[in-house]
What we know:
CATH topology of the largest domain: UDP-N-acetylmuramoyl-L-alanine:D-glutamate ligase
Bound molecules: ligand NAX, adenosine-5'-diphosphate, potassium ion
Radius of gyration: 26 Å
Shape: elongated
Strand content: 5-15%
Catalytic activity: (6R)-NADHX = (6S)-NADHX; (6S)-NADHX + ADP = AMP + phosphate + NADH + H(+); (6S)-NADPHX + ADP = AMP + phosphate + NADPH + H(+); (6R)-NADPHX = (6S)-NADPHX
Number of helices: 17
CATH architecture of the largest domain: 3-Layer(aba) Sandwich
Domain YjeF N-terminal: 10-218
Binding site for AMP: 404-408, 433
CATH superfamily of the largest domain: Ribokinase
Protein name: Bifunctional NAD(P)H-hydrate repair enzyme
EC number: 4.2.1.136, 5.1.99.6
Number of strands: 18
Amino acid sequence: MKTIxxxxxxxxxxxxxxxxxxIASIDLMENASLAFVTVFMQLYPDxxxxxxxxxxxxxxxxxxxxxARLLQEHSYDGVAVWIARFSERESDEFATNVARLYNxxxxxTEFFTGDELPAIRQRVVIDxxxxxxxxxxxxxxxxxxVEHINQAGKPIVAVDIPTGLRADGMLPQEEPTIQAHHVISxxxxxxxxxxxxxxxxxxxxxxxxxxxxxxxxxxLPSDFKLIESSxxxxxxxxxxxxxxxxxxxxxxIIAGDTNTLGAALLACxxxxxxxxxxxxxxxxxxxxxxxxxxxxxxMYCTEEELLTMWDxxxxxxxxxxxxxxxxxxxxxxxxxxxxxxxDADALTFLSQNKGLVDGLPKHSILTPHMKxxxxxxxxxxxxxxxxxxxxxxAMALQLIILLxxxxxxxxxxxxxxxxxxTGNPAMASGGMGDVLTGMLTAFLAQGYPPRDAAIxxxxxxxxxxxxxxxxSGMAVVPARxxxxxxxxxxxxxxxxx
Length: 497
Ligand SMILES: NC(=O)C1=CN([C@@H]2O[C@H](COP(=O)(O)OP(=O)(O)OC[C@H]3O[C@@H](n4cnc5c(N)ncnc54)[C@H](O)[C@@H]3O)[C@@H](O)[C@H]2O)[C@@H](O)CC1
Ligand SMILES: Nc1ncnc2c1ncn2[C@@H]1O[C@H](COP(=O)(O)OP(=O)(O)O)[C@@H](O)[C@H]1O
Ligand SMILES: [K+]
């Protein structure tokens, strides 16, 4: 897992690296600029691309100047530089790089006001106006220049972070920023990239290593960690020789009502395809034919039968499409003490009966989307606040709160918040959450601790969606199809020995 840093912590890592390694600040800037240029050249390999680099006079601007020089050294001969001299202050590294740039043929235009800026004729703009040093909203000349650049309608590649976007903390919806098509961010993605409020500022981001001291960074106190594929490799256990269905646990899905049986079928299908040894479905009798037709591997269990069967199940997932059958949640809570997965209608029921939340088995996994979350824990104006609440509630209630979104936040009882990097907008359609519930239940049934089950399920759910969207070029990934891609996604990530 990678620790996500605040802007202040990035400065700390910067200072520590300079103090403890034989690297000067100006060389660190050169590293960062070279790392940027390496990715930029992959994005725009045509050396005839006309590039305008807009620089401030701090270190972000210093990066921009170095990038201009390096692009020119790599034979990009249509490079031009604008310098926004809206402040008296210049950083030392900026000053050094200006002097270096004046030794090249690159045209440099300096602006002392944001009024009457010339039209942008270049094909691509690099935004190096302000970086993580941002300390107030853009206004005046800065704002005019940022608006001018956005209005030019050219692809924008931001250095480190789009100008105007805060790296962390609350993101006011209406604050203007550069609207970047790509952001090439140094050492770590910024926390704000994972919040929906940054959608206009960041279309895609790339992260480059610039040589900051990694052991120091990993020791910095941070509540936020980004999940990586290596974490999945560590957690996942391949199926063993001589194993049998009993080895992989018995999962129970309590879901579906007469008109919402599909949700139950999706959750059961995902549970089956995620490797539970046995899957039972407690669905209404009217769904039996559909269950047998669609998922003959899954066993049917009536509400009456449940009364004598609770002990047989290794894990229970409850909620998708449960409708009127919601009293089953209380039965379930009365009879099982193992962590369970609570989703959809079961979450709504909890938000109407808040006293019940305390009675959930510790380390149970709640899977609210934004609206379900706010119904449970109160309205929030920003994702920053929502995630803070998730963290506090996960600790107070000793539950795992999986706050679903493009980047799902997994708030753990120990106060850590994990961010899942997989998944894409092709997955934004009904039933996708039911699939996640089935996957979570399957991993719990297989004996993964709840934290590991949450990480595995979120990561593989998104990875299966990414495989279909990216490798198979599907613009929309229906939940049913995602279920079928689960086994091959596993197989791809963990080839059998
Ligand atoms: N963190 C690192 O390890 C490295 C960072 N580098 C670069 O350094 C950048 C940070 O540089 P700086 O700290 O010099 O800051 P910036 O270049 O982001 O900003 C310069 C100055 O602008 C002023 N300012 C902030 N918000 C403003 C606003 N809304 N309107 C007008 N003025 C405003 C502040 O006084 C700030 O110090 C990073 O984003 C990155 O691009 C790289 O040079 C290499 C190493
Ligand atoms: N843009 C997106 N990128 C990645 N994942 C997404 C996106 N939109 C939705 N998802 C995933 O799909 C699921 C949607 O869950 P939910 O809203 O509960 O769906 P439903 O109730 O229809 O089953 C979540 O796991 C979420 O992370
Ligand atoms: K920038």
